[in-house]
Amino acid sequence: MVRLILLTAPIVCALCGVFMGRFVGFVTYNLLGFSPSLSSVFKMFIDDDGATNDKDKKKPHKKSKAKKNGDASGNKLQNVRATLVKVGIVLSLWFLHAELRPYAVTFHEKCHMLSQHMSHPTIVQKGKLKSGEEVTVDDYRKCYWWINDNTPADARILSWWDYGYQITAIANRTTIADGNTWNHEHIALLGRVLTSPEKEGHRIARHLADYALVWAGGGGDDLAKSPHLARIANSVYRSMCPGDPTCSKFGYSKEGPSKMMSDSFLFRLHSHGKFGIVADPNRFQHVFTSPYEKCRVFKIKGVSQESKKWVADPKNRVCDAPGSWYCSGQYPPALQKVLNEKKDFDQLEDFNKVRDDSEYQAQYHENLKKRSEGKAITVEGDKSSSGKKSPWKPVREVSTEEREEFNSSWENSEEITLLWNYISNDDLKGLMQRLMYNPEDAFRRSSDGRGPMWWANEYGRSKMIRVLKKLGVSTNLKDARGMTPFTVDNEL
Questions:
Q1: What is the number of other CB atoms lying within 10 angstroms of the CB of residue 240?
Q2: Regarding the domain delimited by 400-491, which CATH topology (the fold level of the hierarchy) does it fall under?
Q3: pLDDT tens-digit map of 364-386
Q4: What is the pTM of this model?
Q5: How far apart are alpha carbons 24 and 21 in whole angstroms?
Q6: CA–CA separation, 239 vs 396, rounded Å?
Q7: 213 contacts: CB under 8 Å, gap ≥ 6
Q8: Which CATH class is domain 137-305?
Q9: How far apart are CA 129 and CA 5, in angstroms?
């Protein structure tokens, strides 16, 4: 908004000046009989000195010409009309002055206040303590200086894009995103990291950055912005808030933060050390908090050195032309699975794209309207007005090649552990939610060759078996012992 004001203010001032000039010219012409201009002023001085030119002598005055060509009655009527116009203008000006003066005074005071506010650096502010003492809050600059003095020169800092330029210019470190937000998909990935559950956000962040910086301390900090971050992330990664473009489940209510918010990467780092909340020590190390707790820095543990090395390699950059100086980087291969889940964001006004995302946009605005009116928002999977549920189905179909790859690759992983927990705890809703946006997980196999279908049969989860069959999981596969999912019970 500050940039918009700075860019448009001169234009608005010039246009207002043109309007005011025309208005004053109209008024003075009708009241005094001449239009104020440089030429008329010069002419007035010349006439006063007795200097006239031949053209002015030969050119008859309008009034004298009217007297010669007009009759007496016409002149009288003209004079009456002119007098009425002047009286009307004077009364109008008096009325407008009385009515508009309070607004003009308020507008001037507001402009003066904004000018003072914008004349100071945004990272250095005045504040008051609870005791009433006025202090200078220099937290943000100290935070950037700390990063410059205490982190390696090749350190990468993850934060919301608002502070990217400041990190680059003051901290002299690489940032994941700066104020140039033309790449919406990249900003959405950053939003996904910050608003995803702490564990999932870390799994992505470890391939992108070495440190995470969050603005805390209330006001317009990162937590206050986070519902917008979730919406931006969901516009590209629809699994964030399925069926709800406005991410109504991510935010604050009278009861406090929602579960989705309180479990998020951003919330855990923002609220670290408060109300008994602690960021996962296995994933994050708290290294700095500014004097007034406006800024916090965390070291990301388990950073993928392989991804960091791959990104830094000039060979993995894409140039816009052979020998060009403009060579943009790429995401490391380890993030390809995450990137495969994205749906490129299409602006409605972009006629160059064939894909149409108008349905999502319409639902987004409809949900915003419901929120403003205090109405409940119906999301995908909820009961509709007809009392029926939307049919469950995955967001995409797993290809034959992917199925064969998972069936031939047996390994223990975080995904395998997560699936086993869903099935052993009889968490059907959690399993369906997971498989809706990650249908490939249904075909994963642990190191002993067993997978979700084996466990579902072992625990007698008939509904889960139906879900897995709907995804196309075969019941004829064999584990390391040569047993199919439905022969395990007999063997045991």
A1: 25
A2: 1.25.40
A3: 778 777 776 666 666 655 443 34
A4: 0.58
A5: 5
A6: 12
A7: 143, 147, 157, 158, 159, 163, 167, 295, 296, 297, 298
A8: alpha beta
A9: 31
